Amino acid sequence: MKEKEHQSIEWKESWQDEYLKWICGYANAYGGTIYIGTDDNGNVVGIDNARELLERIPNKITDTMGIIADVNLLYKGELEYLQIIVDKYPSLISFRGKYYYRSGSTMREITGKELERALLKTQGRTWDGVPLPKLTVSDLKQDAIQLFKDKAVKRGRLTKEEVSVEDTILMDNLHLIDEDGYLIRAAMLAFYKDPEKWVTGSYIKIGYFGKSDSDLMYQDEMHGPLIEQVDKTVDLVYTKYMKALIDYEGVQRIEQFMFHKDAFREILLNAIVHKDYSSCNPIQISVYEDKIYIWNDGEMPPNLDSTDKLFMKHSSKPYNPKLANVFFKSGMIEAWGRGFEKIREACALYDGPLPEYEINEAGIMVLCKACDRYLRLLRDDGQHPDHHPNQNGQDVNKLIIDFCKDPKSVQEIMDEFDFDSRTSFRRKYLTPMLKNGVLKMTIPEKPSSKNQKYFS
User: Fold this and answer.
1) pLDDT at res. 47
2) Which domain holds residue 48?
3) How do residues 104-132 score in pLDDT, each as one tens digit?
4) Which residues, listed in sequence order, are joined to residue 440 by a DSSP beta bridge?
5) Is residue 41 part of a domain?
6) Are 95 and 89 in contact (CB under 8 A)?
7) Is the CB of residue 71 less than 8 Å from the CB of residue 23?
8) Does some domain include residue 322?
9) DSSP state of 122
């Protein structure tokens, strides 16, 4: 049965020396097979110089790359053609001083940071596993280490005995010290007080945007050890950047955010462990009235290139495995891809949509859309309770209660807090506060609701 052409099989009608690049690319990827003497559909057309190439091609491969490939003479009827089988090599292979890699249906040259990563991989290392000879355990921030210990014990990932050791032993147990006794980059990112001294862009940038992408209203940056950045960023986003809208279920007061905090936290943690820190770009969070964007200059495994695939069962392959292990041991992230299931569960609590992932060479962009309940509250009378002009960031209910120390009428309350709709004011504030007993009605001097006043 004829094999189909795919990323590890190529059909070629005749031999060209440029195919040596393809052999180099196969050796650096997952191996592959090239057939010489076939058309683009895999039909054998034969070659006249098969026996000559049978001797010449192996020599060229060995002379230019120092590797051995199996070159076999095959027959179909009276037609002769060649099969070149290339194995995957554990070390990175070069062809005339350049490195090539087979990716999908294309062959491309490996350069820059990708070449550095590939070279590290052949040594059994990752970018976050590279040692930093001038960094010592005493340079690490004690508050960050203590935060890690508290979280690890609380989540049951480590015992009190396991964290009650010297910092050097703890770092070694977390595999953050290499065989020569040096701390690695993952330790620096997680625990060093100023990781930007070593890696530019190892921080998080947050901005609030108005009606357009160019309408940046205010922004913040979160610096310091990554283990501290997570909680601080989540807290800042959910206090300064995403004020809750207020709704009621009966007499129960509900604070409704546009996107569930637990889901946002998981997305942020994914951004941290999958980020390509060698790019020198910060993680960027853009908050709008009804959506959030989270971007990082990183990549996912090749088989996880869409939203649908990410939310299916899959193995966990973090871009920075050493750093991911720190966050796993702290209890902040899950193993085996469980984080995406937690995102799904959190979104379901809000009956909101799953985040949408766009994964390409520019990085990973995650779009988090507001849930329907939040959008309904946002549209309702055009008011946003937690951003009321007379509020100054305080709870409207509390301000009304304080205002009614002396009895006030509905109109007096509405005038004080600039409410336009009497119906909306009664439904959102007055009726729930009366039911909760935090406001009471006076006995009117005259039998008319206009004379009715309210006091706390």
Assistant:
1) 94
2) 9-122
3) 777 888 877 677 776 666 666 788 998 99
4) 455
5) yes
6) no
7) no
8) no
9) H
